[in-house]
């Protein structure tokens, strides 16, 4: 396969870059390892600061993508290595089998007969899905996928018999694809920092969830259809504590600031106050970061008397024994130790570049795993630095211009 520009990662940054490059007339291949496009923003309930659903913007991008004749996208495909130099790169990609073809109409008959249930990866295991599943309600491309590890394979094959469109092919095999490109845009994004590493914050307690789990809990297409309840007993929590910088700005975990976690917790406070009007929210922070135009958003959230900001790093969380948690911190504005019992805790875990955990051979990285630009290889979005969506989009557009400069010499 050949293209002027290869884009690695089909999140909001990669989609933006691929579409803008293609609309400018260049041939583009977009490679995405998930079964769907959109990346992490597909898991968000709303966007700060306007509190609008991310799917508004994504739908427009998908529509533009459908009109780009010179843009080819490949899902379930992971870039493993890059070699060569500007103007002549060779990229190795591993494509996993989806086991479902383009003939799928997403009718769902296969799901009804599938006997295997597994933790739903899209909802961080807070509910179950079948081994053949639709990744999420708005998934694009709108095609089912089979989880190779969970599926019983040909000995079961009930989905094959149930599919009227002959869209299931259990013989599909992994493929290795080689792509030649003149320039590469890296938009590999981020993963939520692994909460199990934060041992002082009781990460295994069911009522200690992460900020991304809160996004799914609050979502109308989430595990509870948008009801914010505690995982342990399904009870609506009336007191919720947020632990900011959970693992961030900490040399033992992520030494950097993820730039969005304070704003995300403020947004979560709005979700909670909207759905549970008498709930009290406590946000424990080291420094509040609501840069630029986000100051207004902070002022709006802070004006709610049921949302309290407490300046102090949480040292420890303990199990109160009744499903509740005890949060221990020092309030640095009063100098007093605080021990507060709450019904649920949200850890504001940071964004770790996905390339910190899974490196692509042939790229260069900084000490945190973010991708560094080198001639012809241009990182953008959270692959390059922690950023919100608006910044990631601007960065993606800038990356396209740099890629075009490489192509045109
Ligand atoms: C709790 C929380 C809430 C947030 N809320 C907001 C908000 O309200 N408003 C806002 O502006 N921002 C918000 N953000 C930030 C926002 O999520 C990011 O700005 C955005 O996801 C960045 O998009 P991206 O495309 O750079 O990365 P991603 O969304 O991570 O996309 C990267 C894509 O690359 C793919 N990929 C990775 N490696 C490979 C590979 N080797 N080969 C092929 N594909 C690969 C991944 O599967 C993924 O689809 C929030 C962040 C958090 C943590």
Structural summary, described in words:
This protein has helices at 12-23, 54-66, 109-113, 158-162, 211-218, 261-275, 295-302, 354-357, 389-407, and strands spanning 2-8, 28-31, 71-74, 77-85, 88-95, 117-119, 128-130, 132-133, 145-146, 175-186, 190-192, 208-210, 239-246, 280-285, 307-311, 314-319, 325-331, 336-342, 344-349, 351-353, 364-365, 371-372, 377-379. With 409 residues, it is α/β, with parallel strands linked by helices. The strands form seven sheets. Strands 1, 2, 3, 4, 5, 10 and 23 form a seven-stranded mixed sheet that branches. It contains nine helices and 23 strands. The chain has three domains: 2-95 and 174-191 and 352-407, FAD/NAD(P)-binding domain (3-Layer(bba) Sandwich); 109-162, no CATH class; 194-349, FAD/NAD(P)-binding domain (3-Layer(bba) Sandwich). The structure holds flavin-adenine dinucleotide. Flavin-adenine dinucleotide (FAD) binds at residues 8-14, 31-34, 39-41, 44, 47-48, 78-79, 187-190, 211-212, 215, 260, 264, 267, 351, 354, 360, 381-382, 387-390, 392.
CATH topology of the largest domain: FAD/NAD(P)-binding domain
The major pleated sheet works out as: 7 strands, mixed
Percentage of residues in helical conformation: 10-25%
Count helical runs: 9
CATH architecture of the largest domain: 3-Layer(bba) Sandwich
In total, the number of domains comes to 3
Q: Any idea what the radius of gyration is?
A: 22 Å
How would you name the CATH homologous superfamily of the largest domain?
FAD/NAD(P)-binding domain
- Overall structural class, as computed from helix and strand content, comes to alpha/beta
- CATH class annotation of the largest domain: Alpha Beta
Which of globular, elongated, flat, extended, rod-shaped describes the shape?
A: globular
The end-to-end distance, rounded to whole angstroms, is 22 Å
Unreliable spans are none
Strand content: 25-35%
What's the number of extended β-strand segments?
23
């Amino acid at each position: 396969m050949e293209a002027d520009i290869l884009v690695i990662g089909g999140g909001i940054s990669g989609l933006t870059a691929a579409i803008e490059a293609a609309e400018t007339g260049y041939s583009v291949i977009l490679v995405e390892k998930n079964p769907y496009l959109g990346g992490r923003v597909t898991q968000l309930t709303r966007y700060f600061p306007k509190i609008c659903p991310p799917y508004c913007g994504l739908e427009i991008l998908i529509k533009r993508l459908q009109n780009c004749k010179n843009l080819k996208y490949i899902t379930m495909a992971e870039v493993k290595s890059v070699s060569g130099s500007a103007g002549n790169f060779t990229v190795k990609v591993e494509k996993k089998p989806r086991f479902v073809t383009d003939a799928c109409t997403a009718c769902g008959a296969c799901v009804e007969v599938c006997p295997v249930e597994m933790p739903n990866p899209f909802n961080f295991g807070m509910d179950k899905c079948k081994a053949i599943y639709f990744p999420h309600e708005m998934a694009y491309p709108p095609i089912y996928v089979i989880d190779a590890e969970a599926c019983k394979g040909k000995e079961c094959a009930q989905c094959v018999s149930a599919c009227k469109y002959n869209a299931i092919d259990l013989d599909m095999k992994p493929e290795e694809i080689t792509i030649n490109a003149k320039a590469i845009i890296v938009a590999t994004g981020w993963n939520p920092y692994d909460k199990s590493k934060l041992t002082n914050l009781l990460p295994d307690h069911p009522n200690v969830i992460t900020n991304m789990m809160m996004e799914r809990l609050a979502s109308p297409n989430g595990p509870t259809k948008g009801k914010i309840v505690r995982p342990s007993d399904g009870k609506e929590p009336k007191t919720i504590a947020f632990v900011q910088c959970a693992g961030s700005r900490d040399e033992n975990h992520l030494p950097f600031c993820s730039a969005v976690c304070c704003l995300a917790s403020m947004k979560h406070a709005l979700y909670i106050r909207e759905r549970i009007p008498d709930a009290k929210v406590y946000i424990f922070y080291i420094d509040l970061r609501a840069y630029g135009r986000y100051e207004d958003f902070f002022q709006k959230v802070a004006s709610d008397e049921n949302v309290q900001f407490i300046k102090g790093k949480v040292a420890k969380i303990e199990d109160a024994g009744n499903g509740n948690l005890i949060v221990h911190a020092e309030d640095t504005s009063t100098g007093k130790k605080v021990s507060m019992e709450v019904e649920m805790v949200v850890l504001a875990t940071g964004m770790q570049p996905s390339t910190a955990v899974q490196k692509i051979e042939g790229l260069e990285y900084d000490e945190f795993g973010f991708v560094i630009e080198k001639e012809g290889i241009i990182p953008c979005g959270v692959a390059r630095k922690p950023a919100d969506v608006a910044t990631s989009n601007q960065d993606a557009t800038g990356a396209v211009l740099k890629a075009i400069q490489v192509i045109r010499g």
